[in-house]
Amino acid sequence: QVQLVESGGGLVQAGGSLRLSCTASGSISRVNTMGWYRQAPGKQRELVATITSGGRTNYDDSVKGRFTISRDNAKKTVYLQMNSLKPEDTAVYYCNADGLDSNWFLYNSWGQGTQVTVSS
Fold first, then answer.
1. CA 25 to CA 39: how far, in whole Å?
2. Closest CA relative to residue 15, chosen from 119, 90, 100
3. H or E segment at 49?
4. Beta strand pairing status for 77-82 and 114-119?
5. How far apart are CA 114 and CA 94, in angstroms?
6. What are the Cα distances from residue 84, in Å, to 31, 77, 116?
7. 72 Cβ neighbours under 8 A, 6+ residues apart
8. Taking a C-beta distance cutoff of 8 angstroms, is the pair 119, 12 a contact?
9. How far is CA 90 from each of CA 17, 54, 59, 62, 105, rounded to the nearest angstrom?
10. Phi first, then psi: what are they for 50, rounded to 5°?
11. Which ranges constitute the DSSP H helices of 5-119?
12. In terms of DSSP bridges, do strands 10-13 and 114-119 run parallel, antiparallel, or are they unpaired?
């Protein structure tokens, strides 16, 4: 079983910054793509950014130029540096990862979510 634990959410004023972290643990042989998604009240969960094990990144247009995703493969950890935050960035942010577990079965796991609130 693969677990993802997020940290780093909180309350920040508009224009401020936060850094989210997410670490994968458990019976893991390989971690492929890691990413961040968010869900605001009354809305569907949406992609924020993803990064492959080789470092290729993908961002939603709404965060390009403000957010940066990165990862440390040795630590099985993904980060999301969020700058120039806006009130519309307020949401629960979820970490996601896929890969192969210790039995070489595919997995796709989610973290428990961390709240990010941006005040105006």
1. 24
2. 119
3. strand 46-51
4. unpaired
5. 7
6. 30, 23, 13
7. 79
8. yes
9. 12, 29, 17, 13, 35
10. -135, 160
11. none
12. parallel
Structure-token pair, residue 70: 């990165």
Q: What tokens were used for 74?
A: 């040795």
Partners of 80 in the β-ladder: 20, 69
Amino acid at 80: L
Please give the single-letter amino acid code of residue 116.
V
Place of tokens 């910054």: 17
Distance CA 101, CA 115 (A): 28
Q: Which amino acid is present at 40?
A: A
Q: What is the pLDDT of residue 19?
A: 98
Mean pLDDT by 10 residues, the chain (120 residues): 95 98 96 98 97 97 98 97 98 98 96 97
Tokens found for residue 15 = 């224009």
Q: Which residue has the tokens 């990165």?
A: 70
Distance CA 22, CA 77 (A): 5
What the block records as the tokens of 117 is 């609130």
